[in-house]
Amino acid sequence: MRIVMMGTGSFAEPTFARLLASTHTVVGLVTQPDRVIGKERASSRQARNTMKELARGIPILQPQSINTPDGVAALTALSPELLVVAAYGQILSKEVLSVAPKGGINVHASLLPKYRGAAPINWAIYHGETQSGVTIIRMSIALDAGDILAQEAIDILPTETAGELEARLGPLGAKLAIDIVDRLALGPVAGTPQDKSLATKAPKLTKEHGLIDWSRPAADVCNQIRAMHPWPTAYTYLVRPELEPLRLIVNIAKLDSSAGESEIGAVHALGDRLIVQCGNDTQVEIAELQPAGKRRMSARDFLRGNSIPPGARMAGEAR
Questions:
Q1: DSSP state of 229
Q2: CB 259 within 8 A of CB 282
Q3: Where are the domain boundaries for CATH 3.10.25.10 in the chain?
Q4: Strand partners for 254
Q5: Which part of the chain has CATH 3.40.50.170?
Q6: Rounded to two decimals, what is the model's pTM?
Q7: Cβ neighbours of residue 16 under 8 Å, at least 6 residues apart?
Q8: At what angle do helices 162-186 and 13-20 cross, to 10 degrees?
Q9: Which of 124, 291, 302, 313 is nearest to 215 (CA)?
Q10: Which residues make Cβ contacts (< 8 Å) with residue 200, sequence separation at least 6?
Q11: CA angle 176, 182, 188 (to 5 degrees)
């Protein structure tokens, strides 16, 4: 079967690799335009597009929008029978989906109908889900709303970041996708309609989603930090009397078992431990962080060069 792969980023790579190694013919790759480090990184979080490296001579399309007449024409010229989409980053129009006689399937990193949208892995961790997974759907015009062709769940590990979970879901998605592609090559595959009443959203992340709200319970703060790693990263401001506010990226944090009763955001140095007061009389211990313009470091190393005087606090803005 003639297939066009549409995808960008590390989640899509295993599916693309499995298709290339299969008995099917991959006639083209459609992937996002190359990004400059530090700009427009969005959900792919990649400046070097490794999907292109995997292509090895296969025609590559990188339109700003595949839905334009030129984009549709370029896709049509590849004469695909099926589109296989994984984290492509663009919503496909009816005209694009009509190019392939067998339509398209989407490899989606959630247990649909939960977490429809661009960042399902991140929002599952953010909301404290204990399970994630991959769903293969038949593509439709509505966002991530097509019939379910296959689905498999895995447990989210207690300290797992979005990047770590993505690395486990990518190969799972590839396995499910190649099975469905093989079955579609033999004939129609029946799907199961999604329950629309259970649908939740997973919108595209922005840098602002990383700003930590310390008034939330400590467990929620830890989930946010994990969900925002490796992009856009969770961040806060250390505000200290008579010192300039310091922007901090928080890479690793864990629950502190002691109950705190100080003001929300109050920060204390207990030996070489950095403790922050959260909502509901809970506390977080920051284990690894990165001050603005500095390298990543442990809390111990940070405290060697930075004082935490009385009245110090973590805040959502630099004042």
A1: T
A2: yes
A3: 207-315
A4: 285
A5: 2-198
A6: 0.94
A7: 5, 7, 26, 29, 51, 54, 86
A8: 30
A9: 313
A10: 113, 114, 115, 116, 123
A11: 100
- And the tokens for 156? 């989210």
Task: Say which DSSP state 109 is in.
Answer: S
Residues for the chain: how many in total? 319
| Residues 257-307 pLDDT 10s | 876 678 999 999 999 999 999 999 999 999 999 999 999 999 999 999 999
pLDDT at 41: 45
Structure tokens at 67: 């839905």
Closest CA to 85 of 57, 105, 71: 105
For residue 58, give every residue at least 6 positions away whose Cβ sits within 8 Å of its Cβ, in sequence order, or none. 20, 26, 27, 28, 29
CA dihedral of residues 36, 37, 39, 40 (deg, nearest 10) = 70
Residue 303 φ then ψ, to 5°? -70, -20
pLDDT in tens, 82-132: 999 999 999 999 999 999 999 999 999 999 999 999 999 999 999 999 999
CA angle 230, 178, 130 (to 5 degrees): 40
Report the alpha-carbon distance of residue 189 to residue 136 in Å, rounded.
Answer: 12
CATH superfamily, domain at 207-315 = Formyl transferase, C-terminal domain (3.10.25.10)
Structural class in CATH, domain 2-198 = alpha beta
